[in-house]
Amino acid sequence: RYLPNIHQCDQLRSHSRYLPNTHQCDQLRSHSRYLPNTHQCDQLRSHSRYLPNTHQCDQLRSHSRYLPNTHQCDQLRSHSRYLPNTHQCDQLRSHSRYLPNTHQCDQLRSHTVVTYPTPIIFI
């Protein structure tokens, strides 16, 4: 999980980093997911709330949840892309982490710009 409790939620909110209120925090926690779809991803990114710095990027990476490295983190944010290849796409879909269906997976794959040699490893 990204946010285990209200306290952490409040900490992030107070630093102007991700969640504007406790309600949104509860919503994400109750769905056991970080971002249910690309649209929400784009919304957060456009509001400068998605990944403001390397530190938050590293936190997510250390929890084996989202990004394998800081470079990919920056690349994805700047290119509005999520998945670099089909394999990563399939892994996420099979683990119920990001993509709800094959169609969305295929859309991202067909627009792939950058491919990284390091695969995501789920722990």
Question: What structural keywords apply?
Answer:
123 residues, mainly alpha, 0% strand, disordered N terminus
Model description:
The chain is 52% helix and 0% strand. The model is unreliable at 1-6 and 9-117 (pLDDT under 50). The two termini are 13 Å apart. It is an all-alpha fold and 123 residues long. The longest helix is centred in the middle third of the chain and has 10 residues, at 70-79. It has 7 helices and no strands.
In short:
The chain is mainly α and 123 residues long. The chain is built from seven helices and no strands.
What's the layout of helices and strands?
Blueprint: H1 6-14, H2 22-30, H3 38-46, H4 54-62, H5 70-79, H6 86-94, H7 102-110
Order of helices and strands: HHHHHHH
Give the % helix.
40-55%
Low-confidence stretches: 1-6, 9-117
First-last Cα distance = 13 Å
> What's the Cα radius of gyration?
14 Å
Tell me the number of helical segments per DSSP (H or I, 4 or more residues long).
7
Total E-strand runs: 0
The backbone outline, from C-alpha atoms, is globular
Beta-strand content bin = under 5%
Give the rounded overall mean pLDDT: 43
Main beta-sheet strand count, sense and barrel state:
none
The structure class reads: mainly alpha
